[in-house]
């Protein structure tokens, strides 16, 4: 039986998996599209795939944080780590890269209101076009001026309290969803 395994091994040509890195040959736009389907945490984790992917996550035009709960047995990621993750991603991100979509979803107090406000400010200052926010009901109300942006086309708020006076002309251009 040992000779049969030996014969089988010599029948197939030896391929060195490290010789050809097909992932690195993909265009940035395609890699970005692939990573748009995963959470920011998972996108950062892809940096170990190849040298080229080490920094590709820093230029993602789509960032999704969550959903995070107090403890998710399937994800093994506690919401208390959300703050660290957001700080890491936003501080290491290539700030010259365009951001089109940001999603933030936390169902408990895993992220401080101050850090969350920094997240929203980051989104607005980087010209985000679509902002999706899902928060616990006990976050303090937002002022409608928080979302004043000329680039913001779509704002989706779930379980958010918003203090609306008169948003004025600098409000959202197209869509506003409350769920």
UniProtKB/TrEMBL annotation:
InterPro entries: F-box-like_dom_sf, F-box_AtFBL13-like, F-box_dom. Residues 20-65 form the F-box domain. It comes from the Eukaryota. PROSITE patterns: FBOX. Gene3D superfamilies: 1.20.1280.50. Coiled coil: none annotated. PANTHER family: CYCLIN-LIKE F-BOX, F-BOX DOMAIN-CONTAINING PROTEIN. This is F-box domain-containing protein. It comes from Daucus carota subsp. sativus.
